[in-house]
Amino acid sequence: MTDCIFCKIVSGDIPGDIVYQDEDVLAFRDLNPQAPTHILIIPKKHISTINDIQPEDAELIGKMYLAASQIAKQEGIAEPGYRAVMNCNREAGQTVFHIHLHLLGGRPMSWPPG
Ligand code: AMP
């Protein structure tokens, strides 16, 4: 997608503070962190929202969570705990329409979220 900001980070047209990547998945630090650790984990393939995930994407989505687990260990937040959350559409607060898993940690989190 030529007008997608996260596709531009995948292609290298926009810089990202990249902490992990493999063939299918990229992870970089959020520009506006909401916790001491705030990393976005995205598929390199463009998928706009959770609603657009197809059955053939199941392995890819699983790889995003495997990356989250690995990055959490790297960042030292695996044992104390962290949140991995994906917003879908307007009412959930999605602002970038290329799916991304927010990996948040380094502080206590409240529940339910606002
Ligand atoms: P969401 O509101 O769930 O769509 O989350 C979008 C996230 O992307 C926000 O937390 C933004 O701070 C973050 N963001 C937007 N542009 C960039 C960028 N160029 N690099 C890193 N994070 C970004």
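^ adenosine monophosphate complex. The chain has one domain: 5-105. The mean pLDDT is 97.
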